[in-house]
Amino acid sequence: MNITDILKSHKQWLKDKSTGAKANLSGADLKGASLRYVDLRDANLSCANLRGADLRDVDLRGADLRDVDLRGADLSCANLRYVDLRDANLSCVNLRGADLRDANLSCADLKGVSLRYVDLRDVNLRGASLRGAIMRQGSSTATTYICDGGYHYVTNIGSEEGTLELYSCGEKSWYIKRGCFKGTKEEFIAAVIETHGDNEHAKKYLAIIEALTS
Questions:
Q1: Beta-sheet strands, E only, within 12-94
Q2: CA-CA distance, 53 to 33, in Å (whole number)?
Q3: Which residue of 82, 153, 185, 208 pairs with 174 in a disulfide if CB–CB is 3.0 to 4.6 A?
Q4: Which residues make Cβ contacts (< 8 Å) with residue 144, sequence separation at least 6?
């Protein structure tokens, strides 16, 4: 079955689960494909090659994109809520205006990614590579991630919505500043756990620390 037939059958399945079939494009070679506006909710695209693909305004809610190659793809204004992007390669992807709420980006490669006004609420970035990335949200109270080599800062974080600064001091060694705190990565993690336990502030701090220093 060719891609056109697969998408047609998937569209039928989305309307009525008793007809058509959910799109299974696992491992498919879709390099440079034009899939703008396509409804791929809940589709299986794991391990697919979508390098350089046009995915503007695509609806991928709940889709399986584990281990997918999205290098250089255009996902601007895409709906990526609840999408599984574990271990995916998103380096140099354009996600301007994308909705990534509740997405799983653990261990994903986001190096050099261009992100502007992206909704990152409740996104899982544990283990993700953010080196060289600039991640900024439009709201004045949203979290901003700026990554530039050995220096990162994250704004509007914690119970006081302050700024977190990280300085690389060599391989696997980091100096961290947050409010009155100044110390090593290990000292900061201990302070976060002591202050916040396992609440949402702690989870966010620890996920960001891991993502930016791994």
A1: none
A2: 5
A3: 185
A4: 135, 136, 137, 153, 154, 155, 156
| Cβ-based neighbour number of residue 9 at 10 Å | 17
Residue 7: which of 176, 196, 28 has the closest Cα?
A: 28
Enter the DSSP assignment of 188.
H
Type of residue numbered 140 = S
- Tell how strand 134-136 and strand 114-116 pair up: parallel
Q: CA 109, 115, 119, 121 torsion: positive or negative?
A: positive
Does position 136 have pLDDT exceeding 70, yes or no? no
Pairwise CA distance, residues 204 & 214, whole Å: 15
pLDDT digits (tens, 9 = 90+) for 46-57: 999 999 999 999
Which residues have CB under 8 Å from 55's CB, separation 6+? 35, 36, 70, 73, 74, 75, 78
Q: Residue written as tokens 């399986």?
A: 64
What is the residue-averaged pLDDT of the chain? 86
H helix or E strand, kind and range, residue 135: strand 134-136
Cβ contacts of residue 17 below 8 Å, gap of 6+? none
Nearest to 67 by CA among 43, 45, 90, 88: 88
SS3 29: strand
Per cent of the chain over pLDDT 70 is 87
The tokens of 1 are what? 């079955």
Sign of the torsion angle spanned by Cα atoms 170, 142, 137, 49: positive
Which of 106-135 are b and which e, b meaning 16 or more Cβ less than 10 Å from the residue's Cβ? bbbbbbbbebeebbbeebbbbebbbbebeb
